[in-house]
Amino acid sequence: MRLPIKFIFYVVICMSVVLSQHQTMAQSPPSTQSPGNIALGTNGGVASLNGFLNDATGTPGGSPGFTQFVYGDNSGPGNGLYVESKTTSRDGIKFSTVNSAGNAFGAPTVFNSTTSYTWKVLRNFAVDSQIYIETSDTNNAHIDLTVPANQTAAEARLNAVLVFDASDFRDQNGDLVTGSVGNFFFTLDDFSATRGWQSINVNYAPVPEPATIGLAAFGMLSCLGAVRRFRSGKPASSVVS
Fold it and tell me: What is the pLDDT of residue 18?
């Protein structure tokens, strides 16, 4: 069956647009992005923030380094980052790894999949810009981040409603970083007694290799065995009258 010329023309045009968009994204080295006030949870479960990384130990908001987002657009109340996503429709951040020049997707210059990293990906624009995290899917009230004891609950909520999209995140060998290699998670940083935590970090933790886990377990069993042998061979204590 011969396809109409018009149909073929439209397919070629669409493919050109897609490739052009992909190349444009790839030609964006890590930088500081200031999107103003941010509301995570209004994008239908799709990651609202898209950044790049070409050096895991590089400059926050620069190249070589990783993208850093600055929330809040001016001084005054109400400026900030609003985490409004739900556990049933998670929002989040997507990072794609790029080369040293930032003009092509692929393996970053510096990233070792067996090493832990912390990246400050969100920070405030002004001292009065705040982070607002809803307490639950059904309660629009915000967790009081000025109370240090609320950090555990706030970080648990962050990781329940936000996701780090690593679908384009590769290791030093160019292989995709999957859950079997390492895990990404969020933590709060930069505490202020009047404004609470001002920044959000993305953390990477490698999954221990089976051999490492086996050696640790063997070591623990050996220690327990030694303790038991010591106790069994210890002479009974006598009472001196």
Answer: 38
